[in-house]
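2 proteins. here.
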Amino acid sequence: MSLAPRAVLVHRTTEYEELVARHGTHGQAAFFLSSRGRDIEEIAERHRRTRRAMAEVTAAIPLTWRQTRVERADLDRFLFAPEDVVVVVGQDGLVANVAKYLAGQPVVGIDTDPGRNPGVLVRHRPADARLLLPSVLAADTGTDGLTMVEAVADDTQRLLALNEIYLGAAGHQTARYRLGLDDDGGAVEAQASSGVLVGTGTGATGWIRSVWQERGGGGGGGGDMGLRLPGPTEDRLVWFVREAWPSPATGTSLVAGELAAGGRLTLTVESERLIAFGDGIESDAVELTWGQRVRVGRAEAALRLVG
C-alpha cells in the first residue's frame, strides 16, 4: 500500500522571534530597538503576516495527507521522503536553501511578504494554497525543472546548490589554487583571488548577477567576454573569479566564462584550507585541503518548482 502524500512545510524563524529570543520579552526587544531609533511594530507586523500565512497554508492541506514542519536551521538533519510535497512558506532564498536536500519532490513556493520578496521562487500567495495543493500531484500540473549546480571533490564529497557554489577561503584571506576547464585544451592557470563563483540561471537573479553587473553586464554589452546570463531552465552555467590578483606566479586570464551542459570547471587547491558552499549556507560546507581537486558543473538533478 502506497503512503499518503506528506506536506512538508518549510519555514524560518522570523526577525521578531529572533529579537524576543535574544532579549527575553517583547518589551525588552522594543526598548532595545527604540534606543537605536527603530520601532518594533514593523518587524512585529511582518511576523504576524508570516504566522497568518502559515496558518492559512496549513488549513489548505488536504485532510487525507500527512503533514510536518521543518525550520531552516534543521534542514540538514531532516529526512525528506519520495512521497513528500514540499511547501516553502517564506522568501525566495528559502527555496534555494531546501533544494539541495531534495530528490525530485515537487516544491510549492508561498510568498509571505509580497512586495518585499522578488517572488522568483515563491510564486504563490497563501490564499492560492487551497486550490493549488490538492492538484500538485495531478499529471497535468505544470512544473519548471530549474537547473542546479554541483561540486564533486576527489574524495567523493559532493555539494549541490540551486543558485551558486562558492569556492574560496573561509574568511577574508586570499584563496590560492589552479584553475582549468575541461574543454580548454588542458590549459591551467595558477590564481590568487577572493574565490570563484559558479552559478545557474536561478542564481542569475542574486549574487551572480551582482558580479556580472560589476563587470559591465548591466550596460547591455554582456560584461566579461560578452557573457549572457542563463535562464533558470537553461543547462548553461556561468562562472566568475572574484578579484583575481596578478603576480609573477599567478595570472588573470581565466576570470569568467560559461559551462555548457557537460562542461566542468576544475580547481586544484594550493592553500592550507579552502571551502565550497552553496546558496550562502557556509555552515554546511565542503572542506578542501592542499592538493585536492574539485570539479564543478551542472548537476543531473533539477528542482521541480510548481509554476
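next one coming up
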Amino acid sequence: MLFAIEAEYIPFNVSQAGFEIMYHRFALSGDRMYHQLYNTLETYEYTGNFLNLLSSDIMDEKGNDLSADTNGKLYVSLSAKKGIVIKDEQTTAKHDISGNLTMHPSGAWGLAYSYSNDTEKITFQDGNILKEPWILTSMDDDEVRTGIFKQVSLIEIGNEHIMVYGCLVGDDAPYKIAVYDQDGNQQLLLGRDPSDDSASFGYITGVAETANGYIATDGNARILYFWSKDGTLLGKIQCSDIFGTRYPWLEDIKVADDGSAMLLMTQKREDESASELMVFRLTGF
C-alpha cells in the first residue's frame, strides 16, 4: 500500500524563539496545544491554520515531562518524586509518582517510568493514587528482571497500544521500540540490529500510533520512520526532504483528534541568533 504523506507548517501567531533544544515537551487535547519548557507552561489554541498563544504560566518547579488526556487534564512530571495535575489552568491534584508519567488518552490510567527503575501502572481514583507494578521490573538485575528491556527512555500510550523505546537486554544490545496491547502483551518489536541501517536508530524522541501504523521521530538522525500495523517497515524520510528544514532537532510527535500527527521541532536560525520552535502537521498516514 502506498501513502501520500503531506507536511503542513503550522505557525505560531507570535514567533517562539529561544536558545534551548532537546528539553521542549508538548501535549494535545482537543483544540489546545500545551508546551512546557523547564518551569514555563504555555497554552495555545490550534485553529487549524496557526497556533494562538492563550496563556503563559510559571510553575513553582521545573517540569520534566508533560502528558494530557482528552478531558483537558494535564499531567506534569516534576523533578524528584512528584508531579501535578492541571485542569483549566488550576492545579487539581499533586502526587508523589517517581519519574515520567504518560497517561492513556482517556485519563483512566497511565504508566510511570524512569530509566532502569520499575515501571508502574498509575490510576487516579476518588482522590487516591493507585500504583501497581507493570511488566517491566528489575531492569538492572539479570536474575529477576521481567521484560525485554534493561533501560527505558520513552513510553507513549495510544488509544489501542503502548509503545516503549529502550535498550534491550544483552551486551551491545540495540535500542528498539516494543509495541504492547493494553494488557501488557508484546505485539511487535520495531527496529533492527545496528549492522542493518534500514531502521537502526540514533535516538528516538517520539512515537505515535496512527490509523495506518506507527511513526517514530529520530532526533539524532533527523529522520521519520513509518511502520505498518503489522510492524513492516514502510520507509523513512529525511526532515530536509519533507519539511524543507536544514538541521532541526525533533522534539516529539503526538496524534491529534482528527488523526493527523503533530510534530514539534527546533532549528537554529541562519544567523544563529536563536533556535526557532516549529510545528508541522502530517497527514496521509
